[in-house]
Design goal:
Blueprint lengths: L3 E8 L27 E8 L1 H8 L4 E5 L18
Antiparallel strand pairs: 1-2, 1-3
């Protein structure tokens, strides 16, 4: 199977990728002493099947393809141009 490079955001709050409003009524009365979520970014090669499996993982907040970037060399202006 062919793989592509993906960026995976793991979060320990159980957000999930399938339901953005999964907190439900129980999250309304959540205690203020709840530990802050910990995020971890991973860049990995995945097959389409792996992506679908990760999307069902409640600790995965997002999965995306990396955005290609091209760095443009700066333009150096001469003194006469000022």
């Amino acid at each position: 199977m062919a793989t592509k490079k993906y960026i995976v955001l793991h979060a320990n709050r159980g957000l999930g990728t399938g339901e953005p409003f999964s907190g439900g009524v129980a999250s309304i009365g959540a205690s203020a002493t709840t530990a802050a979520p910990v995020a971890q970014v991973e860049v990995t090669d995945l097959t389409e099947e792996n992506v679908r499996d990760l999307a069902r993982d409640p600790e995965v907040a997002a999965i995306t393809l990396p955005m290609p970037l091209t760095i443009i060399a700066p333009h150096v202006a001469g003194v006469a141009a000022l």
